[in-house]
Amino acid sequence: MIEAEGAGAKFQERLERARKAHGGKVLGEVQIVFRPRNFSLTNWIHVSWVIEQARGFDLVILDSLSALADADENEEMRPIAEALIRIKDESNAAPLALHHMTKEAWKPGQRPTLAQLRGPGVLAGRADAALAIVPMPEVGGVVRFSLWVMKQRDDQKAPPQEVEVLMTGDAATVTMKPLDEIATNAASHGARADLRKLVLEAIPFDGQGVTSKARLAAKLKRNETDVAGEVESLIDSGEVKRTGSWALSRPTSANSASGGSAEAADP
After folding, report:
1. Highest CATH level, class, for 1-100
2. Is residue 192's pLDDT more than 70?
3. Residue 186 contacts by C-beta under 8 Å, 6 or more apart in sequence?
4. Are 171 and 20 in contact (CB under 8 A)?
5. Cα(181)–Cα(19) distance, integer angstroms
6. Pairwise CA distance, residues 244 & 67, whole Å
7. Nearest Cα to Cα of residue 143 among 170, 161, 110, 168
8. Domain segments of the chain: what residues?
9. Model confidence at 26, in pLDDT bands (50, 70, 90)?
10. Long-range contacts of 256-259 (CB under 8 A, 24+ apart)
11. Contact present, 1 and 30 (Cβ < 8 Å)
12. Who contacts 106 (Cβ-Cβ below 8 Å, separation ≥6)?
């Protein structure tokens, strides 16, 4: 694994919990290398270094692609895609690159697509397989997400899975089961309706102050991306207005008697 984002001590702790859940040993089977200074996958010398590190292993994980690329991911994906292919061909290890998706892919209940990968489509076009992880509502001590196969060259796509990772105790036990898309979509629709109502009620009316997306997310203790999506939807419907680049309020014509709490916020 070529690591560029995780903290060393915390990463070792997670690795040990994964080992206890899976069994076996780490020494000789897993090698962790932290990114050297000024490393870039667009530099052919640096790519050669990755190839040498990957020799003898079945899999080389790059965490994350944007951190290791040191390039504008909106413009320079072609040389990065070529670097991944070279790593595969010359090391005989399968490169697994962790990459970010656009905000649209994080909406609960929505099936992610290759179009939602950040950057030009050349990366998705050159990849043999592409998987997407979409967060699901958490249960105490358990991280939940849905796992989707967006692309699988030369084989059928596996159905989406619901995955749970135990975050407490000695072992990071992982369980998987087929995702119930109908139930997930229904639950997500209800959750979105509830969040929309909470967001709207938390936005003050004109003359009572203003708020921002960041302040709303902190006040409601919700994901800022989800809150921002509901805010934009409320703006589109005319129920909320934006002044300048961030100040949010509700038009007084929308029955100010029901009221929102007055507050001021920085963006």
Report:
1. alpha beta
2. no
3. none
4. yes
5. 31
6. 32
7. 168
8. 1-100, 184-258
9. low
10. 256/205, 256/206, 256/208, 258/201, 259/205, 259/208
11. yes
12. 134, 135, 223, 225, 226
Report which DSSP code applies to 89.
H
How many residues would you count in the chain?
267
Phi, psi of 25 (to 5 degrees): -130, 160
Strand-strand pairing, 33-34 and 129-135: unpaired
Distance CA 99, CA 127 (A): 12
C-alpha torsion sign, points 99, 100, 101, 105: positive
E runs forming strands in the chain: 2-3, 33-34, 59-63, 94-97, 129-135, 142-152, 161-166, 174-178, 241-243, 247-249
Edge-to-edge strand ranges of the sheet holding 33-34: 33-34, 2-3, 59-63, 94-97
pTM: 0.63
Query: Contact at 8 Å (CB) between 2 and 36?
Result: no
Cα angle 86, 91, 97 (rounded to 5 degrees) comes to 60
Structure tokens at 18: 């994964």
Overall fold of domain 184-258: Arc Repressor Mutant, subunit A (1.10.10)
Is the previous residue joined to 64 through a cis bond, with omega within 30 degrees of 0? Answer: yes
DSSP 123: H
C-alpha 238, offset from chain centre: 30
Strand, coil or helix: 2 = strand
Quick: pLDDT tens for 65-79: 888 887 776 667 888
Distance CA 121, CA 134 (A): 20
